Structures are given as structure tokens and as C-alpha cells.
What does this fold into?
Amino acid sequence: MAADAGAPPAHGGSPATAPATPPPPPVSYLLGTIHFGTPEEQGLDYAALARTLDEVATFVNEADIDSAWQPAFDGYRWLPPQQPLSQLLGREDFARARALLPAVPVPELERMKPWSVLALLEARGERAGEATMDARLQRMAAAAGKRVQHLETLEQQLQALDCVPAAEQAQVLQDRLRASWVLRIESAKAMAYYRARTLEPWLADIERMDGLGEAARASELRARHCLLEERNARWIGQLQTLFQDGPCLVAVGAVHLVGPDGLIARLRRDGYRVEPVPL
It folds into this structure.
């Protein structure tokens, strides 16, 4: 999608001198990303994305994929040794997690916080790496000599992912493991929505929270508030400053774009014109 600030109002002049036509405002682009799948599954034309990059001065994404991991970050991702995942979930649910994530070594799975296990399950077991859409785009921008900016630090991203206590996250994970068919269907539907570029129905589908009980729904709502609404509110001022500096290509998770608190609605409320662009 393309965004610009709209043309400024014309100022009055004398009858003898018509006001000068202001130059068109710079156009920036909002690109919704998905954090798993291949370019073929996503239906993306990376050559077209490269041409869009040619039109802008700055590439913007959520966080730097090259950020070095710091030992101080371990607490966001790992459970304390005295509280392994099998203890949080119970023997049967831990066995279900092992069966669904056979590529994850058992000692590592025991250490993972429930949000991290959920993220892996939702991404079909695919781990973040050089093949992800986020990594590809940042590499393309750097190779093209674009200024690369980030909306948050790695630690801020981890804080958002880990904002609900592990015991509450475990309730969500347990419900997901006990109805694992829902996860498989939702991963497939997420990719289908992405390929069709139908983001509003995707968000509505996510908000139904199929397969979750009442307690897990309450935890999931709190987690999503941290992941979506709070981050969007933190990002919007940064984006508007970047748009004033020059044309940008902004690549963030697709669900951040839509809904009443999404980036598109926030930009429109602030006077930006946002229009879909075929890709």
C-alpha cells in the first residue's frame, strides 16, 4: 500500500498571480509481511519488490535481524531451570509438543517459554533465519544501498512477546496442543489470506480464537494487546517522522496494518492518504 500526507491546502493570492502548484508529496509504501513460508507460497514477486525499493530512500522494518543476542535476553525466551516446560504443561501435553515439534531437541524444548513454542507451532515449526521474508527484505535493502531503519530494538520486541506470565501462556499452549488440528488449519488459512491479500478477514479469523477456553482467551487477549495495539501506538509517530524525511518502504507483520488500531487506520486518522498498490 502507498501512503502520503496529502497535498497541503492552497494559499490565496492576488488576481494577477495564481498560487504556485505545490510539488506532489513523497509516496511511501507499507508492506505487510508474513513470518513463515516460501516466496512461492506467499505469492510474492521479489523482482517487483526490488523495483519498489528503487523508488525509496529508506527501508524500515520491525527490528534489526542482525542484532546480536545478549545473555541478558535469555530470560525473555527461556524458563528458569527449576520450572521446565514439562512441569508447566504436564506430561501428556509436553508429549504432544514433542510430537508436533520433532526437530526441537528435548532439552531445548524443556527450556522454551510457552510463547516461543506457540510461535514455532504457528509457523509450522519453521525457525527464523536467513530464508524468512524479513531477512530477505533487509538483505535486499542493504544490498541496494538504502538507509535501513528499525521501529524497535530486539529487546523491545522480546518484551512484547513475553508480556504475559509463563503460567498464563501455558494455558494457551495447552489448549492449542489439545486441539492441534486448529493450529494446522489456521497456519494454512493464514497463508491463504496472505496470498489473497485479504487482511481484514485474516484479522477477524485470528480474533475468533478458535479452540481456546475462557482462561486462555483472556491471556491471549492480553498478549495480543502487547503485540499489536501497544506496538502500533509506539511505531506510528516514528513512521510519520520517517515519511516526512523522504519516501520509505515499511515492512511489518501484515496484521499490524489492519483493524481500528492498525497502522493504516491510524495514518488515515492523521490525514494520510493510503491506497492499495498491486504487487
Observations:
- The longest helix spans residues 214-245.
- The longest strand covers residues 28-33.
- The two ends are 9 Å apart (CA to CA).
- The chain is about 50% helix and 10% strand.
